[in-house]
Amino acid sequence: MTTIGDVGQPHDGHGGEHGHAHDPHLAHHFDTPQQQYDSAKMGMWTFLVTEILFFSGLFCAYTVYRHTHPEIFLGASKFLDKTLGAVNTMVLLFSSMTMAWAVRCAQLEQRRGLIINLALTIVCAFGFMGIKYVEYSHKFHDGLLPGSHYSAALHASEEFKAAHHIDEHFHGHVPAEVEREALELEQVNYRTFFSVYFGMTGLHGIHVLAGIGVLTWLLVRALRGRSTGTTSWSSTTSGSTGTSST
Amino acid sequence: MTTTQDAHAAAHGGHDDHGLFHVSPWQTLVAVWLALSILTGLTVWASELGLGELDLLIAMVIAIIKSMLVALFFMHLIYDRALNRLVFFASLFFVVFFLGITMLDLSSYKPDVDSYRKDVPQYEDAMQRRPGG
């Protein structure tokens, strides 16, 4: 570590002074590449922490709503496609690995590996958005929308049919008035479930899009062969790992 | 620490005791990815069992393990400066604090909500007619 007196000394252009060559990527307000690297990385962690706290507002809404209305979660979650969700999770996990691998390549100054891994990560991000598009389209089509936009047809679950003695050929038929009223009461709050659903997954989708932007910028830089300077690279890319894996 | 890192630190002048950063071996990255994939499979499998109340607990425990794997290995937190670990875990503490206080507040209003529901016959009637209710 340096003493206070050292801080602010012009280091660039005084190559012989410290016995080691000056890194052109070292900004004048830092003493050492280590200090610059640590500062950048801590800045990235601080940003990620604000993201965690920001998402926790939505997690709080989810927790409160799930706690007060467990039956709505049981009912409305049946409209979600578990297979598509699982596949999309696998896509994200693979992209987290390729992103971490891209960081490794940047650290070792392996340009080819860096380009491959960044490209794979971007492809995964588009794949994720594609699957999300399919999921959202189904829900838009069925009217499973947030708040006042909710317009889904009443859906009788097996439990509901059993409880109200509705026969198996319910599909397409408007149930008798009493059953209809009970169904409406059960499903009137599904709209709030879908508000939470679209709020959380939509915000995540926006993050994936932002990640595509950042990674494209990094890929263009790598393709141009510019600045594989590890200090700037690894801090940026380690932040992107987090974004791509949330 | 690994030899890769020593070699790397040397290649960059080696002016620091512990190198500029830690380079993760690719084997670690693949192993963590495999672990994450298996844990995802486990979550899906457990959700099919119909364990009721336990479902949520199992899903949450697995999710916490997964997020720790990502933060510690993919995001290098395990090799990082203690200060960055502190920043990260402090934020988790505040998330728990945030959710915990909210839930405490919610449960403190529960008697009021319950008595309100009893006073509104319409609501009580609807609850009676709910399947299983």
List the helices and strands and how they pair.
The complex is a heterodimer of chains A (246) and B (133).
Chain A: H1 33-68, H2 70-76, H3 82-107, H4 111-142, H5 158-163, H6 177-187, H7 190-223, H8 230-245
Helix pairs in contact in A: 1-2, 1-7, 1-8, 3-4, 3-8, 4-7, 7-8
Chain B: H1 3-11, H2 26-48, H3 53-74, H4 82-108, H5 110-119, H6 121-129
Give descriptors for this structure.
heterodimer; A: 246 residues; mainly alpha; 8 helices; elongated; disordered N terminus; disordered C terminus; B: 133 residues; 6 helices; 0% strand; flat
Please give a structural write-up:
The complex is a heterodimer of chains A (246) and B (133). With 246 residues, chain A is mainly α. Chain A contains 8 helices and no strands. Helices cover 68% and strands 0% of the residues of chain A. In chain A, α1 runs parallel beside α8 (230-245), α3 (82-107) packs antiparallel against α4 (111-142) and α3 packs antiparallel against α8 (230-245). With 133 residues, chain B is mainly α. Chain B contains 6 helices and no strands. Chain B has helices spanning 3-11, 26-48, 53-74, 82-108, 110-119, 121-129. The termini of chain B are far apart.
Strand content of chain B: under 5%
| H-E string of chain A | HHHHHHHH
Structural class of chain A: mainly alpha
Assembly level: heterodimer
Estimated structural class of chain B? mainly alpha
Q: How would you characterize the largest beta sheet of chain B?
A: none
Mean pLDDT of chain B: 80
* End-to-end CA span of chain A: 35 Å
The gross shape of chain A turns out to be elongated
**Coarse shape of chain B:** flat
Distance between the termini of chain B: 60 Å
Name the helicity range of chain B: over 70%
In short:
The complex is a heterodimer of chains A (246) and B (133). Chain A has 246 residues and is an all-alpha fold. Chain A contains 8 helices and no strands.
